[in-house]
Each structure stands twice: as C-alpha cells, then as structure tokens.
C-alpha cells in the first residue's frame, strides 16, 4: 500500500469535507463540526496552504491534517506564534494503518521548513506522545477551556523553541472559542 501525502488543492475540498465528517461521525469527544471548522479555517488569516495536507491511496483521499496559526499569549500580553493541529482525520476503514502518523510526521517537517517552532493540540493522551508531544503544562502553556491536562499537548519542532514561551493559547475566531 503506497500512501501519497500532498498539499490539498481546491478540487479536494468536497472530498475532504466528507472524509472529515466520516472520520468523526462515531467519535465521542466531539461536536461533529470538524468538517465545517476546516471550511472556516481555509478562509481565515490563520490558514497556511502548505499545512493543509491529504493522504491518498490509489488516488482516493483517505486522510487529512490541518495545522493553522495560533498565538500563545503571556502575562505581559506578548504573543508567541505557534500552530494548532486540528483536525487530523482518517477514514474509518483506513485507520490503524499508519496514515495518521505519516500525516503528522509530514506536517511537522513542512512546518519546520516554514520556520514554525511548535505545535499545540488537544487529543488522545496515548496517541500523540509517540510523535514527541508532551503535556503543554510542562511548558506552562494553558488552554482557554477546561480539559484534562493529559489531553493538552505541545511539541517543539526545533529544540528549545518553547523555552521562553508560556501563557494562554489563543485560537483564531473560527474555532468558536471565546
């Protein structure tokens, strides 16, 4: 099975919408609006086209990942740019085959090449640490909502990139987080 990871193009939008919807339809901890979030983020200043990636097998889209700009704002109101990983989606029949991992690794590499130093996410505590994610609290980075500490994670794409960064994650308005 050959997995091709590439940048999303506008012709993929409909298939990505359906893929994200299907990937999350049976998930517990979701509002089932991820596909709409993707559409909103594509129109936002937070969107980085190079970090909107699809995975395909035999020309069928089977996975998707999106990293968008966020800020981490400290007590002095200084903003430090980072990225949010949200969402990552793999069609149910293609899960547990390494597709999500390949999307994450590829997205991290592109983000590094673009000069980004870190990624923040809210996700499964048992999954993301295998890619280097650690509790965001280790870096004194907080989320703007109540969620278990083990589900809020961060990774330094460049060693030390979060050394002097701490504060509250500020998501783009498209996330709908007040």
What does this structure look like?
Helix 1 packs antiparallel against helix 2. It is globular, with a radius of gyration of 16 Å. With 178 residues, it is an alpha+beta fold. It is built from three helices and nine strands, in the order E-H-H-E-E-E-H-E-E-E-E-E. Strands 1, 2, 3, 4, 5, 6, 7, 8 and 9 form a nine-stranded mixed beta sheet that branches. The chain has one domain: Gcn5-related N-acetyltransferase (GNAT) (Aminopeptidase).
Helix content: 10-25%
Count of discrete domains? 1
The proportion of residues in beta strands is 25-35%
Q: Please identify the structural class as seen in this structure.
A: alpha+beta
What's the architecture in CATH terms? Answer: 3-Layer(aba) Sandwich
Give me the number of helical elements.
3
SSE topology:
Blueprint: E1 4-7, H1 13-24, H2 34-42, E2 52-57, E3 60-73, E4 79-90, H3 99-113, E5 118-122, E6 134-135, E7 141-142, E8 152-156, E9 167-170
Parallel strand pairs: 4-5, 7-9
Antiparallel strand pairs: 1-2, 2-3, 3-4, 3-9, 5-8, 6-8
Helix pairs in contact: 1-2
